[in-house]
Amino acid sequence: MKKLIEIAGLSKNYKGLQAVGNLTLSVGKGEIYGFIGLNGSGKTTTIRMLLGMIKPTSGTCFIHGEKVSLRNHAIWKKVGYMVETPHAYPELTVRENLHAFRRLRLISDPEVVDNVINRLKLKPYADKKAKNLSLGNAQRLGIAKALLHKPEILILDEPVNGLDPAGIVEIREFLRELAFDEGVAIFISSHLLTEIAKIATKVGIIHQGRLVQEVESARLHLLLNRRLVIGAHEKEGVLEAMASAGFVSSLNRDGFIETYDAKAIQRPDDIARFLVYQGFAPTQLAVEEEDLETYFLRIIGQKGEGGL
Length: 308
What we know:
The protein folds into 2 domains: 3-217, Rossmann fold, CATH 3.40.50; 226-289, 2-Layer Sandwich (Alpha-Beta Plaits). The chain contains 10 helices and 14 strands. It has helices at residues 43-50, 94-104, 111-119, 135-147, 165-182, 193-196, 235-244, 262-266, 268-277, 292-299, and strands at 3-14, 17-28, 32-36, 58-63, 66-67, 79-82, 153-157, 185-190, 202-207, 210-216, 226-231, 250-251, 257-259, 284-289. The chain is elongated and about 80 Å long.
């Protein structure tokens, strides 16, 4: 697969503080790369270096195989982007803003404005001044500006900020269409792993400026911690019975017995029968899986290794 975005050994230091450290990743044609991290983790700094807005301390970014530099203007003809808060002319309407941006992009066909308005479901707000838009619709306008010239690469920083649940689903499906049907390479940053996992083909987790994990989205569920949770009246008896059978168990803060033993998790019915036979019939028995946000916090070290 052709790599449209490549970042190699990228670092950025500010007065002794390392904002990004030795970052390497790539995005191919038709891929959606979800770049996940807390606020201040280095996401926006990385995007600004990728777009040539700030100079890296070391390392290199490539767009379409060409090095990003101040002198290489031609590469941006195929790139659309939205970084942080989308900016617009406040006294101009949505349609007027897009026509202004169309002219800046030297796009001769005025119909592209109506096309992108329809695709982003901005028609009801087309004649509304930008200053009067909700945060969600301002985000839509920012994305529309990024798409006017039909880019082959789309770089978006927190694009679903301010959108309601229905709007998030619409943007999610729209971006999937761009990538999977039209072959656009999309690099999207967010602090919401649960949402990004629904759209991205690959996820990279950045923390304190470093890429701490990179994984195909389809494999994420295999990395989630699972546990068997047991409720019982005679907790000490259950703990002793589980230990005698070779299962490491403990009493959690909610008063339930839990084990992360893979055999117990795979065969909960056998555990239930065993406990009944031992005279400690469970009142509750369930296999639980950590959610993606808990997994994200565990990976960056903000919760205990077992954290569910």
